[in-house]
Amino acid sequence: xxxxxxxxxxxxxVLGITSCACTDISEDAPQRPPARACPSAQPDANGQGAAxxxxxxxxxxxxxxxxxxxxxxxxxxxxxxxxxxxxxDIHYLYLVGLPDTDGGxxxxxxxxxxxxxHMVVAQEQCALPMFTLYAMASQGENNMDVLTNRRFxxxxxxxxxxxxxxxxxxxxxxxxxxxxxxxxxAQQASGGxxxxxxxxxxxxxxxxxxxxxxxxxxxxxxxAIIARxxxxxxxxxxxxxxxxxxxxxxxxxxxEEVGAGGLDLLVVExxxxxxxxxxxxxxxxxREDGPWYWDETNKTSPNFAEHLGWAxxxxxxxxxxxxxxxxxxxxxxxxxxxxxSAWRDNRVRYLFDHPDEFVAAGGIGAVFGPGHEGQTTLxxxxxxxxxxxxxxxxxxxxxx
Length: 400
Hints:
By secondary structure, this protein is α/β, with parallel strands linked by helices. It folds into 2 domains: 17-33 and 40-91 and 270-400, no CATH class; 97-268, no CATH class. It is 33% helix and 12% strand. The strands form 2 sheets. Strands 1-2-3-4-5-6-7-10 form an 8-stranded parallel beta barrel, surrounded by 6 helices. A two-stranded antiparallel ribbon has the order 8-9. Strand 3 (128-134), helix 4 (150-170) and strand 4 (174-178) form a beta-alpha-beta unit. Helix 3 packs parallel to helix 4. It starts with 10 loop residues before the first helix and ends in a 6-residue tail after the last helix.
């Protein structure tokens, strides 16, 4: 059984990235950027598949969407992505923690209006707003005991509902990515017995979900009920983790049991930090597996074709479009490693060179951003992402 190494936990780090960005009150903090003139969305190929249909329902053209995130730099909603020459299709931010807890995202601005503010700014910048709800890890990753703790789950359900309520209050389409890593840990904790083997407080805490099973299957069904009622224009995505099982069919089946089919998409990753950081054992990058810099010729392992084969199996067996998330921004280099905030990686280059392969694997899009302090950012990548996006925007890859 594969288990994700403990050093992959990013809860404290991500909390630092996001909360520091929204509490900077210095006079030198960048101010809210001027709005862009956003072109109206036009279909690129009139695709009929799941990804194209979802893209259009979110107000996007039906091409493979490319975005960025986790990049705030001031109290007025300014972000590195707003400096890009072409508008990002999607912009994502974390929502970390629980209501009524120190540092939980609902406290960053009154009544959770962190969501409102940054959703409006994203819309002004022509980007689809996306939020990653990351709360389960507040009591430790892989801690299934919290699922039957009334105090914890009451607050978890309240935070989930609040995020949707705030997004609906602003209006317009958006994406809510729910609990990266958690579903993979839950799959491992089930020991192969399936989603119903993991107990969760559902209908006993959520009135409209009374009668649903008090397990992960009921949790997924309840999430769909709340989302459709509270924020019908928001698409919900669970996270599919490569490390959850050596067999992608097992992961697909588990997510189906949870209720992924009643939601909208699945979110996947290639690597959460720059390959060079792991090569150099930089801050937060102490791993011993590797190699992390994948073969772009797809002749030696690990490589991109292997990953895309796994992704295609997940998409094909769930019928769900995939969104690649938190892809590292490092620039290619012949020598391993690099330095803090400028590590090497080749995922940006590979995606811009081969967007059709991500589409063929079931993709609707990909968003890039740092998963840890000291990673390469849009400000330190030498302009690589900006150049790639500008070129891509002139002829984006259509969704079938």
